[in-house]
Amino acid sequence: MFSSPRGTADILPEEAREWQWMEGIARDLCARYGYGEIRTPLFEHTELFHRGVGNATDIVEKEMYTFVDRSGRSLTLRPEGTAPVGRAYLEHHLNALAQPVKLYYVGSMFRYERPQAGRMREFHQFGVEVFGSASPLADVEVITLAHSFYEALGSRDTLIALNSIGCPQCRPRYLEALQEYYRPKIGGFCANCQRRLERNPLRLLDCKEEQCRRLSQDVPPIYDYLCSGCRAHFQQVQELLAASGLAFQLQPRLVRGLDYYTRTVFEFIHSALGAQDALGGGGRYDGLIEDLGGPPVPGVGFAMGLDRLLVVLRQSGRPGKAETDPQVCVLAFSGLEKEGFLLARQLRAAGLRVLQDFGERGLKAQMKWAGRTGAPWAVLLGPDEWQQQKVILRDLTAGGQEEVAREQIVPELCRRLGSAAGER
To answer: What is the model's pTM?
Structure first.
């Protein structure tokens, strides 16, 4: 017996309906906001993540699935979506299009982490990226899009945590202040934090170790170190969020776990997830495209874990499901299997969801099977009725049946099931 690798899971048809429902809402929202879908490869050149995500991040240091292919190239299963989308933006010269370019994606990501509820080694993200606008309006648009997504799913207890981490002009002063704060205490921090104090002190704010978080309680807030441009940008983001009616909470230690972020960073927090309480997040990454070898292009976006979101939705009540239940079963007596097959095709062409028994069992067994499918209606093809140009329409919910003319069965079922395709 084989089983799926640790940290991965099969998504079976019934559960897949929940995923289809979530993804359908995401796609509908993105269309309304003017975002186009992009699909990047599942693996990229490893250097893309070293340069884009940052060598001193947990992702690059210890979480990536990296392998060497038969030509000796180092490749990595994508651990996040922004760097691949940035690479595609450059490779396909999307900077030549009218800016900003607004993109979204839904797909699998891979990180070697300790599996737990909502945190798998293969996980699924919905994310958006906006390239080509430095406006605070772009920041607030992606936040409001994410908030609208959570609301549409019925997750209304989500907190917006907000911060600014400055820019390359003002951040160095803050990094010096962090090092000055941490050096006398660094012996009490975890090995990762001790190693990062000189390389990337901002990462110390992102450590999840309880001892490190406790020792960071009195760290100086970044707001005192922001330059006038970053301060004005952050103020406008707050004002626009307030004008949009969105409540948020300033969290001066929020930095996110990726090195490409600048200025605005944000997370969506839900208490049902415990210590690892972030459903998703994002921010501005104005230097990413330059880091990947391109021209200066501002950017902002978010990514949210759909696996974690499903955990929350299931705790607060079952999530919705895509409409995939069968509506009609076609059952044929022996000798009328071909006619049943052709009728099923007609019904499907009219927009109905149809199951057909393949005639490998008697009518009694077919009826029992139809009752287990959940379909509300069955069409029975019997030899006597078929000779008279009729079929039997059976109500599988309330019981009872009636004869219907063969040429009327498609429009009749469409009428009863409210099929828009049938009404055309």
So the answer is: 0.86
